[in-house]
Specification:
With 482 residues, the chain is of the alpha+beta class. The chain folds into two domains: 106 residues, no CATH class; 337 residues, Up-down Bundle (Outer membrane efflux proteins (OEP)). Helix content is 61%, strand content 12%. It has nine helices and nine strands. The strands form three sheets. It has a five-stranded antiparallel sheet, covered by helices on one side. Helix 4 runs antiparallel to helix 9. It is elongated and about 140 Å long. The two termini are 71 Å apart. The relative contact order is 0.14.
Length: 482
């Protein structure tokens, strides 16, 4: 420290004070301004989402953008869930928190400014040269420290925070994609259950009509009592199946309401049909899209980069830490700390300097920390490679399921046509008294089974398509490539 003595000329004293205050104000101004981002700033994640996803787009402020009691097709249901579902809200908050962490890490590049103010009172007044001094002492200090070299620790920490922000943004994309698949799966299950209700009602209507015909034949003595009983038993079974189908349909509606954050008992109208959507991509095209767009693949890549930054952070302890500092202090016997009776002029002092610290030996602490970080990096690289193999399997599996469902739709469509014709023939033969009631009931059961098979094949095809798009990392609210 270099105290300013009272013996100095007043002009010299004022110049020194003015110089100290100028340096202090310049450093404080530099700390307050935004620090220019280094080359790592280019790694700042963009708000947009990969693969056509709008994960970084802010959600609409109003939750009433759609009428809550209106109709929902698949696209509107997915968009509503992505806007209102709390799981997505949580993931979005995690991304925003990571962005604030990146900004915090960026602040470490600038100078750190600290200040302190103190007051001391002695139990009795001191004396100097037979003069009684004041027993109150006020002190104000200001310190500025600027890191100059930290073994790349600050830069690596900032780059790691930027990568973490990107990873959280991709996690948000993955949450949105997973939720979209859940909504589409529930929506298709709702449509399927609706078709099953319609089929069950048609079956019940056919059985009731057959029961009426059978009873009419029985009343005129053309059919035995057994035929009537068999027809009534089948009607009862059909009524039970209809109740089960209607309950399943209501359950699927409640599930959709939950995903869309609607009241669970809301009588929401979900509209749509099980119409297959064309898909003509090859396995190679699907894999190329998956490796490029899937959030979890990109998250794994970010994890590898973050592990690399951790290695550099751990190795930074092997290098000296260099910083510059500036300190200024003033004291006095009044609250403004501007001198005392003894020192009416030389009450402030300042110093500046450089500081280098180097931990030369810590029994291998820094070395083994670096080795640990390298092993973690190897681990995440292996996990990334394994994930890519799993992605290839998932895409292939979804594509095979889609192909299988497409073929089964063709078979089920043909089977339904045959079952309808068989039922018409059986009814006609029964009414012409050349067929039996058992033939009609058997044909009716096969017709109902054929309708269920076609409905199931269509629903499974669309569900496989939904999961195939998700396996490629692409958000398709209406299952169309557009």
């Amino acid at each position: 420290m270099h105290p300013t003595h009272a013996a100095c000329l007043p002009t010299t004293q004022r110049r020194r004070r003015r110089l100290a205050r100028t340096i202090l104000l310049a450093l404080m101004l530099g700390a307050a301004l935004s620090v220019p981002v280094l080359a790592a700033e280019a790694g700042t994640p963009d708000a947009g989402a990969p693969g056509g996803m709008a994960a970084g787009t802010p959600a609409p402020a109003s939750a009433d953008a759609f009428a809550r009691g209106g109709e929902y097709d698949m696209r509107r249901a997915v968009e509503s869930a992505l806007r209102d579902n709390q799981g997505v809200v949580s993931a979005r908050a995690g991304r925003d928190a990571a962005e604030e962490g990146r900004k915090s890490a960026r602040g470490a590049f600038g100078p750190a400014v600290s200040t302190s103010y103190g007051y001391n009172r002695l139990n009795e007044k001191p004396r100097s040269m037979s003069r009684e001094l004041d027993d109150d002492t006020y002190t104000w200090t200001v310190g500025v420290s600027q890191p100059l070299f930290t073994g790349l620790r600050l830069l690596s920490t900032y780059q790691k925070a930027a990568l973490e922000t990107e990873r959280k943004s991709l996690t948000l994309d993955k949450s949105r994609l997973d939720l979209a698949v859940q909504v589409q799966e529930a929506f298709l299950a709702h449509l399927k259950s609706g078709e099953n209700v319609r089929s069950a009602r048609d079956a019940l209507s056919r059985l009731r009509e057959q029961a009426k015909v059978t009873r009419a034949f029985y009343d005129v003595g053309l059919r035995p009592r057994l035929d009537v009983l068999q027809a009534e038993v089948d009607v009862t079974n059909a009524e039970s199946l209809l109740i089960t189908a209607e309950n399943n349909h209501a359950t699927q509606r409640a599930r959709l309401n939950t995903l869309l954050t609607l009241p669970v008992d809301s009588d929401t109208a979900y509209v749509g049909t099980l119409v297959p959507v064309g898909f003509d991509m090859t396995l190679e095209q699907c894999l190329e899209r998956a490796y490029r767009n899937r959030p979890d693949v990109r998250i794994a890549g970010k994890a590898v980069e973050i592990a690399g930054k951790d290695v550099r952070i751990a190795d930074s302890g092997l290098y000296p830490q260099v910083s510059a500092n500036f300190n200024w202090a003033t004291e006095g016997d009044h609250p403004e700390a501007s001198g005392s009776t003894l020192s009416p002029n030389g009450f402030s002092q300042w110093s500046t300097g450089l500081k280098a610290e180097w931990s030369v030996f810590e029994w291998g602490k820094t070395w083994y920390s670096g080795q640990q970080a390298r092993q973690v990096e190897t681990q995440v690289r292996a996990e990334e490679a394994n994930l890519r193999h799993e992605v290839a399997y998932e895409v292939q599996s979804r594509l095979l399921t889609l192909t299988d469902s497409s073929k089964r739709i063709a078979v089920a469509t043909k089977g339904l046509v045959q079952a309808e014709e068989a039922y018409r023939v059986a009814v006609a033969r029964y009414q012409a008294q050349v067929g039996t009631n058992t033939d009609v009931l058997d044909a009716q059961a096969k017709l109902t089974a054929a309708e269920a098979a076609l409905t199931g094949a269509k629903a499974e095809y669309l569900d496989a398509l939904s999961k195939l798009w998700a396996a490629m990392g692409e958000l398709k609210p209406s299952l169309t490539d557009g």
